[in-house]
Amino acid sequence: MTVDDTNSGEGAQPPSDSSSGASASSNSSTDETSASSDAPSAPSSSTASSGSGSSSGPYSGSSSVHPPHHEVDHTVEPTDDPLAIRLEQLILGAERRYTPFQAARTAGVSMELASRFWRAMGFADIGQAKALTEADVLALRRLAGLVEAGLLSEPMAVQVARSTGQTTARLAEWQIDSFLEGLTEPPEPGMTRTEVTYPLVELLLPELEEFLVYVWRRQLAAATGRVVQAADDEEMVDRRLAVGFADLVGFTRLTRRLEEEELGELVEAFETTSADLVAAHGGRLIKTLGDEVLYAADDAGTAAEIALRLIETMTHDESMPALRVGIAFGTVTTRMGDVFGTTVNLASRLTSIAPKDAVLVDGAFAEELVRTGDAPVSEAEAAEEAAAAEKEGEEPPSYRFALQPMWQRPVRGLGVVEPWLLSRRG
Predict the structure, then answer these.
(1) Burial class for 130, CB neighbours closer than 10 Å (0-12, 13-18, 19+)
(2) At how many degrees (to 10) do helices 363-371 and 300-315 cross?
(3) The predicted structure's pLDDT at residue 186
(4) pTM for the whole thing?
(5) Rounded to an integer, what distance in angstroms lies between the CA atom of residue 189 and that of residue 219?
């Protein structure tokens, strides 16, 4: 957010009801896959200000103290549409009251830090306007208070704002584009969609809010449980995980052949099916990229089961194109719900070379399946074990998966790898 601090009562600020495309963005699966970079371009600012009576800094009102990056962007202005304002007040539960400068001063936060928080949350610069509420002031106080108390560093507080903004921006866009659009179809001729929207939002808002908090708490409890079970402090950040990519084959050709609505329905069906299967079998959906999904699992057996279930499910759906999956096992760095590192890149490369309706895994993943008893070292050894068990009158070892070594091949950026073809036994 850019602000002119020489105007003591005004400045740029985010409209509380707007997100500026802050949903999480991802690189193509064939490129470096990583969490989005969170390092702010603005120079590090001070933490919360002690008040508005400072003789220097952003509240001084002196034109001599004017950092060159404090420039006002007048290209975005808050709407003056009466219905839009009524909806905003309904959703936010408060009226517009503050300019950005006034909100920052009321919260006891420097204008520069407030701007960094607002940018991180994905709010647009709108120039000089009075469009912030008491909730905006309280949010600034809370974030700055966490920094002042030493619970979060300033960069971490910005990261919290960014991750929350990106996640909720995508959720809000989906709810408006898909959910509310379907429900606000005018029930009677002559009625406009906007006439239906207000009472609908009024009814849904408290229910959706409660449901959002419930799901967040559930997900937070699950994530916390995984972290506290880590073997050591280092593993809490850099963990050994199985990472899988599932990719629709020939998706680019489909985009040229299908109508937009048909293409959207196909992508939605693919994402929904993938998300359900990943969750049902104990994995975690990291993100969806239209024709591709990225998921992770704590153990190789879970990741393998998910991959084969995806192939089996999509194969029986005639409306779906062929699918290919690549999985790698190793150290993964997690940031803002995303994963990145060599293991992720290797899984992406394996996906790009996997045959149609097949799963390729790396050597480390194959070794992990063998170590946990989910797959034999080889089919020959499995046959020998079965024969020996039969001779002794015992039950032979039961393996869930089979592994077939493939030709070694060079993989761009990762050297020579030996992929293994994963399949289900019996």
Answers:
(1) middle
(2) 110
(3) 62
(4) 0.59
(5) 43
